[in-house]
Amino acid sequence: LRSDGGREIAGRSRGTPRIANRLLRRVRDFAEVRADGVVDRATAQAALKVYDVDELGLDRLDREVLSALVLRFGGGPVGLSTLAVAVSEEAETVEEVAEPFLVRSGLIVRTPRGRVATPAAWRHLGLSPGPSPLGPADVLPLDLGDAG
């Protein structure tokens, strides 16, 4: 494992040691088969692309949630149940697996009216942000454990 390969893996691990270890194992296996066992930056990037982990550490579910929020619902606001149906997942899966990192990363905001994509989410998807659906009452994100 070269230092640049380790940094690439760490940068996509969401700051979570368990995820870093999982990604390291996958990248190491990839390197054994396709890169003579050497994990450098290029090998790590190629492996993480195969495993569908992008440069922010988002996986398939994270990107599906973002894409649905932006493309199907114009950036929101949209309720949790509706968003879950749009990505064919249980509401609990979206709320407990995808949403925490998306909120922490500043890609979505939970408001009293539902989930809203931030301009950073639009840019991450390669799109121009639409007009902001956030009003003055929505400036601070709320933690709505059972709503939405």
SSE arrangement:
Layout: H1 3-11, H2 17-34, H3 41-50, H4 60-72, H5 80-86, H6 91-104, E1 108-111, E2 114-117, H7 119-124
Antiparallel strand pairs: 1-2
Helix pairs in contact: 1-3, 2-3, 4-6, 5-6
Would you tell me the structural class of the helices and strands? Answer: mainly alpha
Low-confidence stretches: 134-148
Q: Give the helices and strands as they follow along the chain.
A: HHHHHHEEH
Largest sheet: 2 strands, antiparallel
CATH topology of the largest domain: Arc Repressor Mutant, subunit A
CATH architecture of the largest domain: Orthogonal Bundle
Query: Count of DSSP E strands?
Result: 2
Strands across the major sheet, in which order? 1-2
Number of domains: 2
How would you describe the shape? elongated
Let me know the average pLDDT.
Answer: 82
Radius of gyration: 17 Å
Helicity range: 40-55%
Distance between the termini: 44 Å
CATH class value of the largest domain: Mainly Alpha
Instruction: Write out the CATH superfamily name of the largest domain.
Output: Winged helix-like DNA-binding domain superfamily/Winged helix DNA-binding domain
Instruction: Give the count of helical stretches.
Output: 7
- The amount of beta strand, in percent, is 5-15%
